[in-house]
Amino acid sequence: MPQEKKAQIIDQLQEVFTRSEYAILTDYRGLTAGEINGLRRKLNEVNIEYRVVKNTLARFAAERANRDDLSSSFQGPVAIAFGSGEVTETAKVLADFIRTSKPTMSVKGGFLGARLLTAKDIESLATLPPKEVLISQIIAGINSPVTGLVNVLAGSIRGVMGVIQARITQLEGG
Question: Is 14 exposed, middle or buried (0-12, 13-18, 19+ CB in 10 A)?
């Protein structure tokens, strides 16, 4: 590959490393070109860019983008899923693909913001519910004590109302 082409690829990868909120590195060993394209289509549906990279060029780009911590992950065949937004969606698509079609493919690691992710971290992300569900669970947890207090206070009032209603019934009947 000509030197200018390598420099251009490094610049492109550096730009992608810099603008992406997260990246997940995978070992695509054992996948055919058709399977990689199928995975790429699935990831494109959730606006994720999936690139097969040359390790040396990716290592240079990562270092230039201040992602030196990724250097050890660039060994063997590597493809990277770059994205912004919901990292859980990407982790789920990759986990589903690995589980249903290619158990030989594996997740190597990645990054989320400034944090380096291990393969176990990404597996955990794949099991998380969507952001909206997590927010509703937190709101329900915050709301639960207040709802309990309202029910306790209303119970006392209902009790008093029951006594008053019984007395009214007693006075009307008697």
Answer: buried
Residue 125: which of 80, 82, 88, 86 has the closest Cα?
88
d(CA 15, CA 62): 10
Q: CB neighbours of 18 closer than 8 A, spacing ≥ 6?
A: 65
Tokens of 122: 């990404």
**36 with 105: CB under 8 angstroms?**
no
For residue 89, the Cα-to-chain-centroid distance in whole angstroms is 5
Question: ∠ CA(139), CA(141), CA(143), 5° rounding?
Answer: 65
Cα–Cα distance for residue pair 93/88, rounded to 1 Å: 9
**What sign has the CA pseudo-torsion 151, 152, 155, 156?**
negative
Environment class of 79 (CB within 10 Å of its CB; exposed 0-12, middle 13-18, buried 19+):
buried
| Beta bridge partner(s), residue 51 | 80
| Single pTM value for the model | 0.70
Q: Is 100 exposed, middle or buried (0-12, 13-18, 19+ CB in 10 A)?
A: exposed
pLDDT tens-digit profile of 114-167?
888 888 888 888 887 777 887 888 888 888 888 888 888 888 888 888 889 888
What is d(CA 163, CA 142) in angstroms, rounded to the nearest whole number? 34
